[in-house]
Design goal:
Layout lengths: L10 H26 L9 H23 L8 H22 L4 H8 L2 H13 L5 H18 L10 H22 L4 H20 L8 H27 L2 H4 L5 H14 L5 H24 L11
Helix pairs in contact: 1-3, 1-9, 1-11, 2-3, 2-8, 2-9, 3-7, 3-8, 4-7, 4-11, 4-12, 5-7, 6-12
Amino acid sequence: MALPLDIPNRPAYAVGAMLVATAFIAATTLLAKALGTDTLGAPLHPFQISHGRFLFAALAIGLVALVLRPKIIEPNLRLHITRCVFGWAGVSFMFAAAARIPLSDATAISFLNPVFAMMLAIPLLGEKVGPWRWAAAGIALGGALVLLRPGPDSFQVAALLALGAAMMMGVEVICIKRLARMEGPFQILIINNGIGLCIATVAVLAVWQMPSAAQWGALAALGVLMACAQTCFLQAMRFADATLTLPMTYATLVFAALYDAWLFGVIPDAVSVLGAAIIVSGAALLAWREALRKQPRPSTDTRS
C-alpha cells in the first residue's frame, strides 16, 4: 500500500475549489434532469445518463493523461473498486431522482451523505459516535422526512431514490478521503472513471436507446463537468481537513435551486425550504462537532 503523501494545508484554496465543485455538481444534476425528462427528446434511462457521465468524463481525463503521461503508483484497487461501485450506484439513483422531483429537494436529501458516512464509519472505520453527533444525524434525517412529505396525497416516492443516493455516496465519501491521503488526485480520477465506465457500460446494455443530437451534447457536457467537479473536489479534500471543506458543499443547494428556476421554472415551496433548512442545520451541527473532536483534548477525554 502506498504511504500517505506529505500534503501542505491550504484552506483558502481548498474552500474555493470546493465552491467551484458545487457549481459543477449542480450543473450535472440539471443536465441529468433535462436528459431524464422530455426536454431534449425521449427521456433517457438513469443508467444511460450515468453511462454518458462516465464515458465522456473518461474521454476528457484520458486526453489530459495523453499529455501529462502520469505514472500509476501502487493503487489500492480494492478501495478503488469499492468507491466506484457505490459511486456509480449513487450517481444513478441521484439522476433518477432529479428527473422526478425538484432539484433543490434531491440536492438537499443528498446532503445526508455525511450523516450516512458517520454511521458507516462505526463498522467500517471503528469510530465511536457520541450523543451530539447522533443528535445532528437525527436532525438531518428529520429534514429528509419533511422532504418525503409523508402523507397519502403528497408522499414523494422518488425522494427515496435521492435517499438511496445519499447512502451510497456516504460510503464513497469514506473511500475518497482514504484514497486522497494515499494517492495523487489525477491517479484517482483515471482509475475511478476507468472502473466506473466498465460498470456503467455493463449496466446500460439492457436499456440503451439512441440519443438525439441535443442529448449527445448534454451527455458530453455532463461528463466533462463531472470530471471538472471531481478534480476540484479532490483538490479541496487534499489540501484541507474535511470538516472545513465538506460544509462548503451546501452551496450546491443554492446552485441547484437557481438552475431549476432558470431552466424549468421550478420554485422551491415552503416544505422544500423547511426540509432543506433542517437537513443543512443537522449537517452543519455534525461538521461543528467533527471539528471539535479534532482539537487537542485534555487527558480526561470526554467523547462528543
